[in-house]
Amino acid sequence: MSTEPDTSEVYLNGEFIPLGEACVPVMDRGFLFGDGVYELIPVYGGRPFRLSQHMERLDNSLGSVRMENPLQLDAWERIFARLTGSIPDIDQLLYLQVTRGVDRTRNHLFPQGGEPTVFVMAWTAEPRDPDISGKGIAAVVLEDNRWHRCDIKATALLGNVLLRQAAQDAGAAEAILVRDGLVTEGSSTNPFVVQDGEILTPPASNRLLRGITRDLVLELARGVDMPCAERHITRDELETADELWISSSSREVQPVTLLDGKPVGEGVPGALWRRIDDLFQDYKAHL
Questions:
Q1: Can you give the pLDDT of all 287 residues of the chain as single tens digits?
Q2: Which of 21, 120, 144, 164 is in Cβ range 3.0-4.6 Å of 187 for a Cys bridge?
């Protein structure tokens, strides 16, 4: 979770300017079509978290929508350092967005010779909520009705927005999505199910965004020989899980203790989640 952006400046198309002065033309394809991609990167102790993995995913998303990365890695790093450098001891979140840029007319076809729009901002992350560690969160199961290229971290997030709002309206913190009877992801997270001591998460595919935190959870589990697997998870397995977690860059790894109004397992954060959370916090502390 995060607070409102509180930075005094942002980066937009080669300039650092005050947030309140940052504007893009109405003919920008990001505004008209959601024709762009983005990344959200946690910053701990002034250091972007898993930066190489985030930038690799950015390249993958750009390639999938037939765009090139407009900046070299060292240029991105200089931007990140300036935007986060004023408060290096406070956890932050970096948001970067690249759209296909401005066109002369509203045309579905790609513009010829256009320049991409590049936008970056940073803000202070919310501190860990002790209630979540003690009680967990509630989630609901909803049908995954989004498009079939969820592996692209695209700015066109209306489907995710509607699903997250539906969860909120139902008194839950997240929606766990199911397509064709199989779990895909959350509205803005990756899910993990624990069955008989094994940690399970859906395999990477076009049906879900392969989260950076998701991959780290698997890496940490395998590093201490905790049984885990990437495989399809049925709705029945979801609803009968011993433990259920969600992960994302802004929420880290959170335990779900209530699903569709029913307790998950014993209805409290489980022992395996606590082990993974300890490993995750230790990993952060030794960046």
A1: 445 544 479 999 999 999 999 999 999 999 999 999 999 999 999 999 999 999 999 999 999 999 999 999 999 999 999 999 988 889 999 999 999 999 999 999 999 988 999 999 999 999 999 999 999 999 999 999 999 999 999 999 999 999 999 999 999 999 999 999 999 999 999 999 999 999 999 999 999 999 999 999 999 999 999 999 999 999 999 999 999 999 999 999 999 999 999 999 999 999 999 999 999 999 999 98
A2: 164
Cβ neighbour number for residue 249 with a 10 Å cutoff: 22
State whether the Cα torsion 9-11-15-19 is positive or negative. Answer: negative
Residue of 135, 153, 262, 284 marked catalytic:
153
Q: Is 153 a catalytic residue?
A: yes
Q: Domains along the chain?
A: 10-124 (3.30.470.10), 130-285 (3.20.10.10)
Residue 253: CB atoms within 10 A of its CB come to 22
**Which residues make Cβ contacts (< 8 Å) with residue 256, sequence separation at least 6?**
136, 137, 138, 139, 174, 176, 191, 244, 245, 246, 264
Return the SS3 of 119.
strand
pTM of the predicted protein model: 0.94
